[in-house]
């Protein structure tokens, strides 16, 4: 009987959403919308609201406990969306200050997922919180939100006795779509609110088990004769900087410069975007968080933040990181073409990278790095065709090094098949050819041509009771992708996970047990790793979550000729959103056996990390984070039971002071240090190394592309006995204005 009830409820949800689309009203010449968040104009009252919202968190498969209304209108230039969220206790609405793209789950916000193709593969997303902060970007179910892209749009909130509302005004020139498509657009609206629980409410019957949130989007009916005229903008930028460089024992060096850069964007039609950049400057980009890297063999992926590379970034995403624009280290010119049609996407990017960049040369047991002493031209192309639930794509990348140094080229197909709303299959095959090889001096030089391949397959399926996934990889040892990110090659692996979901249990919103496994071989057939990890995950009040897993018999090899170590370890973590002042806290830990990679030796140790998002006063955001790992080993010769041979720490305090809606001061303090006991290593090692960074940036943001920045950064590095102490400082002013 219970099964029959659930089945009927599920059928009701899907039958409801199938006919519960958004009805768009076309504004007439005499109808005007004042963007104040109030939805009190007569035109809004002519729109039939969409009110079918469903709760996904904390409880799943239930109707939303609060009413939310969504209305859609448009004219010949803008798309208008009005959202009204009713609240039983409006005094609890969390309307925190937030800078652009930093809205978080501890706040009340509305989000629009707009998919003009209705392909349910990716969507442009537009957020506004109850204070009026904005966040935008690209969303896909496989990669989540990428909030780096910025679009021109406006949104304004308003409070009323029974809750809050917001009006979005989005230029059609900010949305990529095919005007000639007869397929209606799709829209998914998310309402987020956090109190004693985090409530996630969607305009479609999204479930926690699904791996396709966008499949629950509803169509926007009634939009026709959309604009497709040409639009363009030019953003000149002027940067003035003064720098000092002081190395112990050497004279202080000082320099100053003034540089002009130019960004150009042209949209000849609604489906096509052409971007160009000349001498781009990224001095205002927020510092990457320090990461623990002293006891790792492989390169660490860093997210792209630079504006020029973000147009159409979702098109470049594939199951493998075949394209990573962070490999373009210091571009002086770039050109990009992006086209989005109803059934396909295409993008090609070419950029000239100046000399001196580091190039990843992945190996089986470590990531090597070569220096490109010459400039290079990086070209990336990606096409993606949508055939219903199946998406077929292809990638082509080329890195051509100047002065005859050589090239690296990669090409291959991929597919994504959304079998149903809870089942996904993906695969990709890449072939590479390279004749720019690393020489004995660590530089790239022309040499013999090598060819390699990389293959990937994964499958996942879930429902309310079970979840399972399988992942296969096969990378040949000669595969290389200079325009992508691959830290390891020369292996084959299979990973799998099975989860048993018990649903709501007592005070817990979720209680899941799982077991994950990995089996990995190098190209010679030697075992790289064997892992079997049972664990438990739970979720509870205050958007809290925790996990604990045990890996009693991990087998791992870190050196081709080294021992296959047997390791036992325990890992866990906890996160919660206690309140407005302590918006988020999180911690993770691992304890047990640890391999000291540099010494190829097993020790006892672990790692832990802590992070928080704090608002001690309304206008101040603090985001401290700390991470450390350590290794101890038995030392019978010294008579001690153990001694610490290695310790690494990384600290960052990121603070934002909101002077006004347009003016902020960002202050970042970073400190990273590594300590080793030289007696524990056969090779010479530094007993201590440190790096600290202090950054201060004042920003006045007049709009997308128009801003003034004043910044100051000081970096100090010290590795006694190996590298002299060094202090670098820079003062810069940047003016950016969009025409």
Automatic annotation (TrEMBL):
Residues 1-20 form the signal peptide. Keywords: Signal. Residues 255-317 form the DUF5916 domain. InterPro entries: DUF5916. Gene3D superfamilies: 2.60.40.1190. This is DUF5916 domain-containing protein. The lineage of its organism: Bacteria, Pseudomonadati, Pseudomonadota, Betaproteobacteria, Burkholderiales.
């Amino acid at each position: 009987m219970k099964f029959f009830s659930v089945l009927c409820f599920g059928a009701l949800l899907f039958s409801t959403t199938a006919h519960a689309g958004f009805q768009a009203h076309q504004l007439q010449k005499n109808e005007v919308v004042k963007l104040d968040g109030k939805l009190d104009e007569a035109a809004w009252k002519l729109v039939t609201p969409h009110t079918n919202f469903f709760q996904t968190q904390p409880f799943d498969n239930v109707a939303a406990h609060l009413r939310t209304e969504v209305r859609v209108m448009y004219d010949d230039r803008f798309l208008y969306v009005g959202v009204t969220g009713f609240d039983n206790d409006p005094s609890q609405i969390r309307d925190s200050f937030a800078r652009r793209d930093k809205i978080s789950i501890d706040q009340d916000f509305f989000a629009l997922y707009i998919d003009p193709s209705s392909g349910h593969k990716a969507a442009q997303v537009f957020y506004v919180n109850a204070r009026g902060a904005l966040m935008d970007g690209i969303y896909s179910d496989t990669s989540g939100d990428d909030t780096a892209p910025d679009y021109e749009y406006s949104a304004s909130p308003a409070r009323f006795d029974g809750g809050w509302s917001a009006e979005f005004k989005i230029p059609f020139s900010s949305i990529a779509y095919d005007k000639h498509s007869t397929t209606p657009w799709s829209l998914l609206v998310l309402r987020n609110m956090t109190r004693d629980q985090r409530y996630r409410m969607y305009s479609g019957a999204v479930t926690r088990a699904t791996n396709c949130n966008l499949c629950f989007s509803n169509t926007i009916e009634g939009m026709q004769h959309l604009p497709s005229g040409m639009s363009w903008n030019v953003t000149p930028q002027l940067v003035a900087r003064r720098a000092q460089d002081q190395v112990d024992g050497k004279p202080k060096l000082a320099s100053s410069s003034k540089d002009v850069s130019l960004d150009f964007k042209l949209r000849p039609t609604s489906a096509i975007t052409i971007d160009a950049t000349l001498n781009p400057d990224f001095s205002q980009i927020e510092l990457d968080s320090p990461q623990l890297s002293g006891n790792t063999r492989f390169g660490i992926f860093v997210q792209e933040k630079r504006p020029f590379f973000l147009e159409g970034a979702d098109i470049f995403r594939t199951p493998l990181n075949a394209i990573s624009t962070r490999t373009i280290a210091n571009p002086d010119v770039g050109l990009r073409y992006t086209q989005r049609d109803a059934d396909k996407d295409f993008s090609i990017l070419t950029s000239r990278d100046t000399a001196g960049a580091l190039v990843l040369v992945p190996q089986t047991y470590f990531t090597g790095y070569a220096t490109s002493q010459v400039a290079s031209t990086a070209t990336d192309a990606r096409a993606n065709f949508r055939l219903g639930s199946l998406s077929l794509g292809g990638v082509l990348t080329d890195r051509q090094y100047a002065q005859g140094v050589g090239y690296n080229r990669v090409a291959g197909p991929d597919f994504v098949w959304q079998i149903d709303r809870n089942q996904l299959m993906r695969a990709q095959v890449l072939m590479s050819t390279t004749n720019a090889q690393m020489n004995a001096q660590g530089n790239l030089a022309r040499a013999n041509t090598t060819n390699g391949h990389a293959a990937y397959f994964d499958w996942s399926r879930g429902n309310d009771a079970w979840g399972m996934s399988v992942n296969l990889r096969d990378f040949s040892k000669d595969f290389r992708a200079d325009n992508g990110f691959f830290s390891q090659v020369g292996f084959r692996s299979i990973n799998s996970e099975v989860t048993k979901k018990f649903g709501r249990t007592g005070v817990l919103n979720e209680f899941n047990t799982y077991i994950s496994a990995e089996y990995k071989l190098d190209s010679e057939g030697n075992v790289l790793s064997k892992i079997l990890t049972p664990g438990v995950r739970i979720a509870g009040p205050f958007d809290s979550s925790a996990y604990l897993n045990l890996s009693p018999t991990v087998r791992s090899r870190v050196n081709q000729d080294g021992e296959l170590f047997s390791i036992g370890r325990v890992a866990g973590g906890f996160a919660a959103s206690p309140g407005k002042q302590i918006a988020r806290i999180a911690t993770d830990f691992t304890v047990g056996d640890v391999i000291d990679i540099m010494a190829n030796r097993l020790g006892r140790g672990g790692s832990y990390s802590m992070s928080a998002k704090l608002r001690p006063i309304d206008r101040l955001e603090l985001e401290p984070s700390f991470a450390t790992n350590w290794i101890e080993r038995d030392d019978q010769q010294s008579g001690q039971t153990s001694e610490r041979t290695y310790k690494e720490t990384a600290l960052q305090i990121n603070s934002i002071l909101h002077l006004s809606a347009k003016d902020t001061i960002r202050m970042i303090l970073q400190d990273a240090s590594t300590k080793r006991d030289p007696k524990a290593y056969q090779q010479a090692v530094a007993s201590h190394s440190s790096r600290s960074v202090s950054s201060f940036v004042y920003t006045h943001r007049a709009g997308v592309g128009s801003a003034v920045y004043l910044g100051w950064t000081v970096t100090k590095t010290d590795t006694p006995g190996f590298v002299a102490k060094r202090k670098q400082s820079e003062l810069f002013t940047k003016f950016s204005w969009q025409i």
